[in-house]
Amino acid sequence: MTVVSNTGPLARYRMMRRIRSFEERVGELFLKGGSAGSMLHLSIGEEAVVGLTDAMRDGDSFTTHHRGHGVFLGRGADPNRMMAEIAGKQDGYCRGKGGSMHIADRALGHLGANAIVGGGISHVIGAGLTYRNRGTGQISVAFFGDGAMSQGILYESMNMAALWQLPVIFCCINNQYGMGTRVDRSAGSRDFPARAAAFGLNAARADGAEVETVHDTARAMVSAAREGRPGFLEIDAYRFFGHARMDKSPYRTPEEEAEGRQRDPLARARARLLAEGAAEAAELDRIDAAAGTEMDGALDHALAAPAPALSTMFQDVYAPGTPAPRPQADRLRAVLAEEARA
Amino acid sequence: MTETTYREAIRQALIDGMEADADVILMGEEVGLYGGAYGVTKGLIDMFGASRVIDTPISEPAIIGAAIGAAMTGLRPVAELMYVDFAGMAMDQIANQAAKSRYMFGGQIGVPMVLRTQGGTGRSAAAQHSQSLEAWMLHTPGLRLVMPGTVNDAYHLLRQALRQPDPVVVIEHKGLYTMKGQLDVATPDGAWGQPVTRRTGRDLVILTYSRMLHESLAAADRLAQAGVEAEVIDLRCLNPLDEAPLIEAVRRTGRAMVVTEAAVTGSVASDIAARLGESCFDWLEEPVLRLGGEDIPIPVSPALEKGSIPSADLVHDTALWLVTRKAPPWAA
C-alpha cells in the first residue's frame, strides 16, 4: 500500500478529493435537516485552491470568504469539528456560534471566514504588519471571490500592501458568480490581475482547472510575498452548484453548467496522475474511498454531537473575566421584583 | 499632579502606553508626520519610528480592518479615525468585524485594539464633522466605549483601554482638547466601568458625559445659587457601565436628567433614561428627563450650531423646572 506523502501532486489530489467529499456531505447534512440554516456555500469546482494552500506553511495565517470550507481543509482543518460547526454544535470550531460562514481556528492560522463580501480582506494587512514588525517570515493570505472584486476595501488593502511591502497575498477564487450575477454582469473589465498590477502587486491568473498550474504560480508568489513583495492570484474556476443550498441557479443554462463542469480540477488531476504514471487507478480509488469514509464519519459526528447549552449564548461577547452581557430575564426579574415589593 | 491639557493628557497616555508595551502601534490618517489633525500625536513618529506610528492612506475601512488583523495576530493597535463621522465609511469593520470576531469564533480570537476618535460640536465643522455618534457604538455588542470629559480621564481611560482584551472605542471631544485640568498619572478618577460623581446634591441627579459634563457642572453651580443642589454624575464609561451607583443616586433624589450632546432620539441618553425608569420607577417624583441635541443635522452657522445642543442655561432652566415645577420663560 502506498503511503500518500504530505505534499506533491498525489497529496494535492487527496486533499481535493477530501474537499469534494466534505462538501458533498455538507449537502447531505442540509438535506437531513442537520445543518444550522441553509446558508451553506459549497466550494465544489474550486478545489484547485489547494495549489495555494499547499504552498503556504505552518504559522502562515489567512482569512476566507463565505465559501471557504475548501481553503480551511486545505490548511489542515479537522472535518469533524468543521462539520459540527456547520451543524451549530457545541464541539464545532466556534462552539456553534459562527457556523459555515464564520469558521476560524487560531491554531491553524485561520483568522476567520466572513459573511460580508470583502470583510476579511483587510485583516491580512494587519497580520502582515505584525509579521513585518516582528520579522517572523510569516505571510497572510486573503481568500475571496470574484464578488469582492467590486468592494472598495479590496483596493484600499491592495494599496496598503504595496505601499508597505507587506508579506501578504490576495487570492481571488473567481467562480464566475457573485450569487446570481455572472462576472461579465458585474465587472467592466475582467482582467483582475491588471487591476492588482496597477497597485504595484505581483499579479497573476492561474487556471483553476489545473491544480498543479495553480501550485506552480502560487509557490513563486508565496516566496516573493515572504520577501515583502505582496501578490495577487486569480484562480479561474467555475462554481458547480448554486450560490447556497436553496439556489437552483435558474439564471444560468444547463449548457453553461455542463461546460463549466468540464473544467473539473479533481477529474483533471486524476487524469493527469494516471497519464503521467504517477499513480495507479486502484490507488486513486483507495484515496477516494478513504475520503468518503472520513467524511461520512464527519457527517455522523456532526449529527450526533450535542447542541450548545442555552446559557452559552452570553459567553465570548467579551473576554472572560470582564463584564458580560446581562441576560434579559435577570433585568426583568430585578424590575418586577421591585414592583412586587411596592 | 500636574496641570496640563486634555490633548497633552491623551498624548502622554499614548507615549506611556507605547513605552510600557512594545506591541502598541498607532495607525491612521496624519498621525505621523502631521502629528494628528488636532495635534494629539505630535512628535510620536520621531520618538517611536514609522513602523510603530503609521501614516495611512485615506482608507477608513482598511485602517480599522488592518488594526483588527494586527490585533488578532498579537499587536495592540491604536487606530485613529480622524472624526467619528467617518465611522460611516468604516462601520462594517467596526460593527461586523471588530465587535463580533470573538463571539463568532467561539472565543478563540479576540481583537484587543483601541479605536481613538473624536466627535462633537463647537468648531462650526458642520454636519459631517460634528456629530456625536456614540449610540452607534453602544448599540453594538462586543464594543467597549468610553468618553472622557476630564483631563485625568483623558489619560487614564486611554491607558485602561490599552489593557483591555476587547476592542475599545474612545471618543474624545474636539471642543475639549485645549481644556486645562489636573493630571495625576498615578491615580485614575475611577475604576474601569465605574461612573464618577463629580458633584453631590440632594435634589436631583444630572447624568452626563464628555463635554456636557462641564455644561452640567456650570448649571449645577447656578442651581446652587437658587438653592437647588444637583448631583452630577459623569458616566465616562458607557460600556461597561456599573449602573448601581446611578440607581442609588436616582432613588435617593427621586429626580433625574440625562444630558447629552447627541441627537436625542435613539441616543445613549434615551437608553440610560429607560434603564433608570425601569429601575427607579417607585422612587421617582418625576419622569426621568432627557436633554440632548436637537434631532437635526449639525448646522455650520455658529449661532445655529450652538443653539442645537444643550447649554448650561438649558440644563439649569430644565433642572429648576424639574425640581420646582416653575417653567422657564422660554417654555411659556
Write the layout of secondary structure elements.
The complex is a heterodimer of chains A (342) and B (332).
Chain A: H1 9-31, H2 50-53, E1 61-64, H3 69-74, H4 79-86, E2 110-113, H5 123-134, E3 140-145, H6 152-164, E4 168-174, E5 177-178, E6 181-182, H7 192-198, E7 202-207, H8 211-226, E8 231-236, H9 254-261, H10 265-275, H11 281-304, H12 328-341
Parallel strand pairs in A: 1-2, 1-3, 3-4, 4-8, 7-8
Antiparallel strand pairs in A: 5-6
Helix pairs in contact in A: 1-10, 1-11, 4-11
Chain B: E1 2-5, H1 6-20, E2 24-28, H2 44-48, E3 53-55, H3 60-72, E4 76-81, H4 87-98, H5 101-104, E5 114-119, H6 134-138, E6 144-146, H7 151-161, E7 168-173, E8 180-183, E9 196-199, E10 204-208, H8 212-225, E11 230-234, E12 237-239, H9 244-253, E13 256-263, H10 268-280, E14 289-293, H11 302-307, H12 312-324
Parallel strand pairs in B: 2-3, 2-4, 4-5, 5-7, 6-7, 10-11, 10-13, 13-14
Antiparallel strand pairs in B: 1-8, 6-12, 9-11
Report on the structure:
The complex is a heterodimer of chains A (342) and B (332). Chain A is globular, with a radius of gyration of 21 Å. Chain A has a single domain, classed as Rossmann fold, CATH 3.40.50.970. In chain A, 43% of the residues lie in helices and 11% in strands. In chain A, the strands form two sheets. A six-stranded parallel β-sheet of chain A has the order 2-1-3-4-8-7, with helices on both faces. Chain A is an alpha/beta fold and 342 residues long. In chain A, a hairpin with a 2-residue loop joins strand 5 and strand 6. In chain B, strand 13, helix 10 and strand 14 form a beta-alpha-beta unit. Chain B has a seven-stranded mixed β-sheet, with helices on both faces. A five-stranded mixed β-sheet of chain B has the order 9-11-10-13-14, sandwiched between helices. Chain B starts with a strand and ends in an 8-residue tail after the last helix. Chain B is an alpha/beta fold. Chain B is globular. Chain B folds into two domains: 182 residues, Thiamin diphosphate (ThDP)-binding fold, Pyr/PP domains (Rossmann fold, 3-Layer(aba) Sandwich); 129 residues, Rossmann fold (3-Layer(aba) Sandwich), CATH 3.40.50.920. The chains are: A alpha/beta (342), B alpha/beta (332). Chains A and B meet through helix 5, helix 6 and helix 12 of A and helix 3, helix 4 and helix 5 of B.
